[in-house]
Amino acid sequence: MDEQIKRMSREIKTLKWYAAILTFVFCAILVFLVINVNQTHFKEITAERINIVEDNGNLRMVISNKSRSPQALVYGKPFTPPIEGGNRPGLIFYNDECTENGGLVFMGGKDSTGKYEATGHLSFDQYNQNQTIYLQYADDNGNQNTGLHIDDWQIDPPFWKWRAAYKKAQQLPDGAYKQKLLNRLMEPSRSHKAFAQRIFIGKNENKTAMLTLADREGKPRLQLLVDSNGIAKLNFLNEKGNITYSLPKQ
Question: What are phi and psi of 195, to 5 degrees?
Fold first, then answer.
């Protein structure tokens, strides 16, 4: 009986040692993982969407396929009315306040008739407004417009409030009141549109390489052109779009 007790005592001590050793090994592995978790290396990752976030969880960038692309967000909440996601494959950028402020989007393909469309778009938004500078390739079955665009946006109200008002006005019955309201939204003050393209550097649908400078209403006032036949021109235009002076002289 005494021998059995002694044997059991020795076995219990052995088990205690095993438990202590296993606990130490487990803790050592856990500490190693915690220390090295930020240094994990992957040779390849396959994912439908990756969210890059700040320490507080705010989005800074979303990388996604088409179907899982995010809604447009303002201060972390969807626009009202919402701009639905699911149609912007690529990268979407967010500022410090979790408001969308640009992105890199790309797509292209043929339809059932064999016609194709292709787009590449890199944009950066004005604070609390829409895109103010963007590089874009747009191709509608060979009808291309490609270049650098710089736009002018009004400072107030924020883009999402302006858009909500415009969408609401579009729902009104057709008539003079609706058109007057839409016009006022597009041009809040005289000669000062809600937004206007000020600079375009690129190639238009007629395969003309061009530099166009416009006024605050978005009306071209100076054009430097080289057309598809290699003919170079410098045009000065008035506010009605008419050429007032050209080099070489016509």
Answer: -155, 155
Place of tokens 């408001």: 99
| Bridge partners (DSSP) listed for residue 124 | 102, 133
Rounded to the nearest 10°, the torsion over CA 71, 73, 77, 78 is: -40
Three-class SS of 106-146: EEEEECCCCCEEEEEEEEEECCCCCEEEEEEEEEECCEEEE
Select the more confidently predicted residue: 231 or 30. 231
115 in any annotated domain: no
- Length of the chain equals 250
The residue-averaged pLDDT of 205-233 equals 94
173: nearest Cα among 163, 161, 182: 182
SS3 191: coil
pLDDT of residue 188: 84
101-147 confidence digits (pLDDT tens): 999 999 999 999 999 999 999 999 999 999 999 999 999 998 999 99
- 70 conformational bin, left if phi > 0, alpha if psi -120 to 50, beta if neither: beta
Domain encompassing residue 206 = 127-134+144-250
How buried is 99 (Cβ within 10 angstroms: 0-12 exposed, 13-18 middle, 19+ buried)? Answer: buried
Pair (86, 173) in one structural domain: no
The answer to whether position 156 is within a domain reads yes
Tokens of 101: 């402020």
